[in-house]
Design brief:
The chain is mostly helical and 516 residues long. The protein is 48% helix and 5% strand. Strand 2 and strand 3 form a beta hairpin.
Amino acid sequence: MGLSASLFLRQTQSLVMTPQLMQSIQLLQMTHFELTQFIAHEVEKNPLLEIASDGSENGAETGFEDNEAFSEPDSGSPDGAADGHWYESSSSGMAERLDEGLGTGFENVFQDDGPVRRADAPELLSQWKSMPGGEAGEDYDLDDFVAGQVTLRDHLNQQIPFLPGGAADRLIAQHLVDQLDEAGYLQGDLQEIAARLGKRIEAVETVLHSLQTLDPPGVFARSLGECLAIQLRQRNRLDPAMDALVKHLELLAKRDFASLRKICGVDDEDLIDMLAEIRGLNPKPGADFESGASETIAPDIVVRAAPDGSWMVELNPDTLPRVLVNQAYFQKVVKNCPKNGEDHNFLSECLQNANWLTRSLDQRAKTIMKVAAEIVRQQDAFLMYGVDHLRPLNLKTVAEAIKMHESTVSRVTSNKYMLTPRGLFELKYFFTVSIGSAEEGGDSHSAEAVRHRIRQMIAQETPDAVLSDDDIVISLKRGGVELARRTVAKYREAMNIPSSVQRRREKRALARVAAF
């Protein structure tokens, strides 16, 4: 068979990820804050895009539309002269006689505006705006009156000059301040700090003990026990029994109250009082000085009960971006631009991008609405009766119901929140693992509903009937939930619930104190 070259035409189809398609996918998973920043960036570089305001949507305009109504009358017409100067022609003589007799001139008799006063300290004018001779009137900045955020280091640096010691001790103190973490604990090693500063370890420890007396109580501690001991010492409550308790916090974590009673030499009532006092201390004294601002979550979807018993699913108008395309500006500018010129091509590209952005935002809102409506339909029992009736749900079920891909549903539910009569929930909260039923052919259960049931059973325990993990498994099986013991232990540890042995010790100790 001979080899020869031939020329032929083949037509194929392929899916290509264009930049606009990639940006549409990114828009779908953006949060409200990220979307606002993205739109602001697009409006800045696209002259045809505008962010709609209330005034522009309602057609409100500013300025005077009818200037003739506010213009002065024409001095050439007799009517205008009569209308414009009627008060002068009728009462000019009377006004002059009253002015002469009563002295009704408008000149300022009491001269309040004296000569400009010289500033007392001209070099301080930029720092002291209220100084006589400084900036006058209302020329001030409101930001100057806003209290600044005080950090933990600033708060400590204000107290260090009042500590006893010289310049060398202040240098050590400043170095120790730099070694604090956000919780107020000292992270540096004293031996390394002493070697770095060329000081003896005793000098560094002396400065550290002085710093541990500063506010907030417990700062400059190197461990949790030392932090609690510092706070108890400042309250004059660090007696030998309390000191022994602080040194054996690992027994307190295990709820080993029998060993703690022997070590501290106290009875149950005193031990319970000591534990209550420990709980009143602050394990992170520097946490109150964190500079991070709390972020408010704005729901993307709002669910309300309808009068007919169904649910109304609406998009939150506060989180919907309102973007307009200025077609009038485009038509006006294009008329004066040569066709196929650089300016014409630039504006055409801007118009295309603006139309694409508005369509993408509209498609984003419709997709979020479809996913939210299907979630509400699937979790109707949860909205009616609570978390006990939360159904198991996965992305595939919702995707098949709304005829979309699972990846699209995953992007929609990422960092999106729904406000319901039961509270504010992330959309991913409604997607939980399915747990099989103990009965053949029975309905499956949601993992979140099972965790809630375990939490309720433990909360209803009595000191004489504390449930073990095996008891919880048996109780769940009676309720129609098939669950292994290791899964129950995993759920219990995830909810920070101690074991049955630790719970029994704590409940019995509290019961003895209550009996007294």
